[in-house]
Automatic annotation (TrEMBL):
This is DNA gyrase inhibitor YacG. The lineage of its organism: Bacteria, Pseudomonadati, Pseudomonadota, Alphaproteobacteria, Rhodobacterales. Inhibits all the catalytic activities of DNA gyrase by preventing its interaction with DNA. Acts by binding directly to the C-terminal domain of GyrB, which probably disrupts DNA binding by the gyrase. Pfam families: YacG. The gene is yacG. The keyword RNA-binding does not apply.
Amino acid sequence: MTCPICHKDTDPKYKPFCSRRCADVDLGRWLTGSYAIPVTDEEADETLSDGHEDAPPIRPN
């Protein structure tokens, strides 16, 4: 298995990453919203029509 950040071999201590650095890079991406599932306008409309009219629209980054 290779590290999803730098593609080096993984270290069992930091699996699935190779190092603490790559684990921190991944965490930073999650915290800043870099990882997101894209949503089309149609999907956002469906979400709101499912009884969540008071919810704000979901906007892709």
